[in-house]
Design goal:
By secondary structure, this protein is of the alpha+beta class. It contains 3 helices and 5 strands. The protein starts with 12 loop residues before the first helix and ends in a 7-residue tail after the last helix.
């Protein structure tokens, strides 16, 4: 994977799947797979993206906390996807089996329309790699 900022960990099969997600979503510049403790399992960035891997991991850890907090609210039902549009960046977070999550980082003014299919494909790829139950549909 080519990116302007050097990776701080060896690339796994998850990074390739996350990289494909970043390439498929217009405006996306990074994606991370994060576990229930906020630990970043792996991440990917778009080519020519200059972002410190630490910043990706901190953002992913923060969203893991948000996913956990929302999941504790039974009145909302099962959490599926969070979309957060910010002034400088936007985030899309998809809850996964085993309390994992995908955190997708988007540039300012990135659109959310084409993201559902790309997230579904990423989730299916991660499920096959991690030997999770395949998502429905």
């Amino acid at each position: 994977m080519t990116n302007a900022t050097a990776r701080d960990q060896a690339e796994s099969a998850f990074a390739m799947i996350l990289g494909e997600l970043v390439r498929r979503v217009p405006g996306a510049f990074a994606a991370a797979l994060v576990d229930w403790d906020g630990e970043c399992v792996d991440y990917a960035t778009a080519a020519r993206t200059e972002i410190d891997p630490f910043d990706i991991k901190v953002a992913a850890a923060h969203w893991a906390i948000v996913v956990h907090e929302i999941s504790q609210r039974s009145a909302l039902g099962a959490l599926q996807t969070i979309v957060c549009r910010g002034e400088k960046r936007s985030f899309i977070v998809r809850a996964l089996p085993e309390r994992y999550a995908i955190v997708l980082m988007l540039k300012k003014r990135a659109g959310f329309v084409p993201v559902a299919r790309a997230l579904d494909a990423c989730e299916r790829g991660l499920a096959q790699e991690a030997v999770w139950p395949l998502p429905k549909g």
